[in-house]
Queue: 2 jobs
Job 1
Amino acid sequence: MSHGRRTALALLALVTACGVVSGVAPATADPVAAPTLEFANPDSQALFGTAYAAALDNLLRTNTIGYDAKYDKSGLLDPAVGLVRAGGGYDQPWTRDASINSWNATSLLAPALAENTLWAVVDKDASGALRVQQDDQQWDQVVWVTAAWHHYLVTGDRQFLGDAYRTAGDTLTIREHAGTAGFNATYGLFTGPSFFNDGIAGYPAPPADATESVSTGSSPWPGVASGMYLSTNEVYYAAYVNAANMADQLGNPSEAAGYRTKAAALKAAINNHFWNAATGLYDYQLLADGTRGPYQEGTGLAFAILFGVADPAQARSIVTHAREMTWGLPDTYPHWDRYSAAQPGRHNAIVWPLVQGLWAKALAAQGNQSGFASETAKLAKLAGGNSGFWEIYNGDTGVVDGGWQRLGDTVKFHWGSQPDQTWSATAFLDMVHTGLFGLTFTDRGLAFTPDLPAGWGDVTLRNLRYRNADLTIALHGAGTRISAFTLDGRPAAGNAVPATLSGAHRVEITLTGATAGDRDGDHVADAADRCADTAGTVAGCPGPGHLEAEDAHNTGGVKTNVNHTGYSGRAFLDGLWAQGAASSFTLHRTSADATTGAITVRYANANSDARTMTLSVAGKAVRQVSFPVVSASWDAWGTVTFTGVPLAGRDPVVTLSYAPGDTGSINLDWLEYHG
């Protein structure tokens, strides 16, 4: 893994449960039939349903690659099954990515694929003992243990469990005795960088310095290597608890007791050295000299809730005091002195969807419906507005942004944010599975603790495979309290289905107790708001008189940008540069009476000639439209109006696309509808 890249995991409350890149081609067929998500509310379907389908495509098609023998160092891969790479810019599985993606979604959606992916980051020592691969990102490799335990809970595969337990034990032993990123007996904590912050941009000074003079990576910095970080120690706590769970399942009670003793000691040390009563949060870092860092770490705060490191009062305090940015919970916060809102650090005050996924689960676990709904909607909008799931976004603007990092005394390097990032997509899948539907896996079966926010409407998840069962799960009402739970029309004990279930079955859940509120602040109560997560004036939805292009649903490579001036809103759209690129605008009208209307578009065209696009309504091409040259500068903007556009229904969808025969290559700023 190159330094400054990023890597991580999102692991649930398991601790309490008994494209061609570098010559590697994505698989040509999905390994399984994917589920479908269907909302009764068309606006919820457009936002969340579309994002869910895109996330499935990201995982099961774009980032599923074929078997590669170079990853079979464990000797446990199935050559007939592929594996999951880290993303469009990263063709490897990597330890954290393999673990996160398996836990977030792959173990449920494609168990054989998840198993291969988990074994792809395991090798053997000289004696043949299994261990998580020993690379230069070793400080938090034990996250694999929690992912492996989750895989067992989902699948019930005891052969896998036995091999995973040996891998867990060998790996924990290595880490406990390591000279680097090992155990500090003085504090009772593990040393080494924070969970996925492998770049020095993720650390304040000290242990960094103002010019990041030692390295762009985090490990070469002595203060980071010897320091202790919240998220990493929580990952070790979870690993001990889940190693104990494995031992119990395999009939090794004395070994289970030993792991639980270590877990209890580590939990006590975390609370002793990281909890900060003054801020109501856990601190981010503890340096070897005892200096504490009272900063906010997104993964650390989420893990504290999900893994049960925080007691109930601490968990409530975390939710109350955590600082979010406009587009989600940031990685670390606030801006270090050497960074700023204009140039946010790659791992500092910037939004990574994997952190959003963890935080959304934590909010759902706390019953914070408004917070869960908000975080989930933010990621859905980021994906919908940028042609899919990217690696990193600017926390203030939502623009695709890889962040900044020092490369010496005066130079800052602006990183790219990689497209088709797998753990960004699986973060959203897990928001739906674990947050919305409340899927909770145990060794006895699948339990449900749903969280359906007001305003989203009834929702059904179809064709969800769980072991030998094919489930259709329907949620009705809104809230977190289950008032009725049926399996195939009959009440089911414990709001759960047994692990032995087979064949096709339907689960119906009715919910009550939805949080009363107005999430988007448009003075329309969530329960009556057709677009409860987007402010608007037409039944709570954005009015069609002015729609910013960055809020459209964008596909085919279209994404937000701010590298030119003169645009309105928070950004403009670029990427309309190749066939297949498209921007779609939903026109929420007060009535469905008008059958034609006029569309005005603000755009930039600094090419040498007029450019064309195809105007469509409801997916049907209306005509090719022209965008004349505005200026020789991409900072200049003009408008063009298309009259006589046929419209039908209250919520027609108007699309501008680069279709065959078009010349494209324009930027978009906004669209207006006039009836």
Note: The chain has 13 helices and 35 strands.
Job 2
Amino acid sequence: MCGIFAIFSKEGQPIAPKIYHGCMHTLREIAYRQSGKQRHRGPDDTGVKSLPEHGVVLVHERLAVIGVETGHQPLISESGDVLLVANGEIYNYLEQSLEIAKKRGHYKPKSDCNVIVELYEEYGEELVQYITGMFAFALYDKRTKNIMIARDPFGIIPLYIGEDIDGNIWVASEMKCIVEFCPKLEMFTPGELRVGPANNLKRKKYFKEFWIEHIPTQDVDLSILRLKFESAVRSHLQCDVPFGALLSGGVDSSLVASIATKLRRERDPNYRLRTFSVGLRHAPDFKAAKLVADYIGSYHSEIVFEIEDALDGIRDIIYYLETYDVTTVRCSLPMLLLARHIKSTGIKMILSGEGADEIFGGYLYFFQAPNPVEFHEELVKRVEQLHLSDCLRANKVTMAKGLELRVPFLDTSFVNYVMSVRPEDKMPGNQNQISNVQKNRIEKHILRAAFANNYLPHEVLWRQKEQFSDGVGYDWIDSIRSVASSHITDEQFATASQRFPINTPTTKEALYYRTIFEEIFPGNAAAETVKRWVPRMDWGCPEDPSGRAQAVHQVHQ
């Protein structure tokens, strides 16, 4: 995983040097300096390719995980006509490489992303139908002066696109690189591509699945669910550097760690996965995580943090996250401390359990869903907004420390299967809304049932959902809410709607984060890239996003 940056001239013509921070700079110099704001994403290498005659410059900040010695970017086609900067992992690149080799007689990719160039030359914009993985890329074709920009179906990889006052197109993995120059700015939509000349980019939705618009009626098959998830984890283990797994002690991260261990032991019976947990002393997650670590025989580390140390990082985390969403900020501070520790061990890739709650309905507020139709529609909304919350947090926090995070639950094939299962099979128990057979059924029941034999300790497999910011220690949310609120006076809160008419903060804690965000990223364009994560208040749920605020929550000791 890396960082990408690109500038494309509106007319495909040279862009004259500009005054930048008081001095005259070429386009290449501006691009290099602006991309430097996301250089934490790529500590291993910076690659720049400038085409002054086209008004194009591409920059790549590299974290070398696959093709360590050969994967330098920007990637260039054999003809020299196609240039690419890509961020992410193409998990089926070996299969695609074999197909390319059959047609050419020989082909050895420099990295997993190299196949994007070859597939473009054969299929054009249809190439996105041939790749699976997490990705965001910008491609330039010198022959046609056409651009192609795309993002993976669920927005696992971040991507922003903007337009400067001259109409030139700017693209970057992080908003901080382009917000200074682009009064028009937006988060690039997942599952979408834009193609054409810079002055006439066409938007096209390439990810179109039945479950997005329709209520599914397919019964779950636990055997298929299990096999598809094991296949997803297997594909995510492709790696040329040391890796590990996050282990909170919840069912999602625990299953990822357990399956990864089983798969690795196919080749090495003595294999021990590196696993990591974070929390306050005596955090609820520590006990459950240790049970799993002992069960799967991982080499486990507990990172204990103090509340004051995490609170010190509020401003830093908003800078890295590029959001002021309350639940995202709360979750990210302990995770940043964890990512820093993991990177210090020499690990460059980490597996995680993000995405399961969105596709299975694992958040505790889903107990309040009034019927299967609304349950499924809320799942679809959560999946479509992953790039604004969980994916954004998971990617940007770990990449702040040059650490790649992978999410097997968001494997495209697996998501399509789970989201095609009828909502009745996924709904958690609700005394008022479902049959006697299903009463009191735990959230993510079908996931747990599919892995009921010899994957996890029983008490972890059937442990109730504990949101990360709660599981690190109940004092954490109480403390950050109190400290953040103390920075805002009653008078400031009373005038919040006048100061911030867009996405007006509704609590002092939210206003504090929004104030910091505005200092770092001023202007409405930046503010409009953020969306709040809140439970369904129209279902009777409280506004506070903490799982502890839900009536069904059980205290874990």
Note: The mean pLDDT is 92.
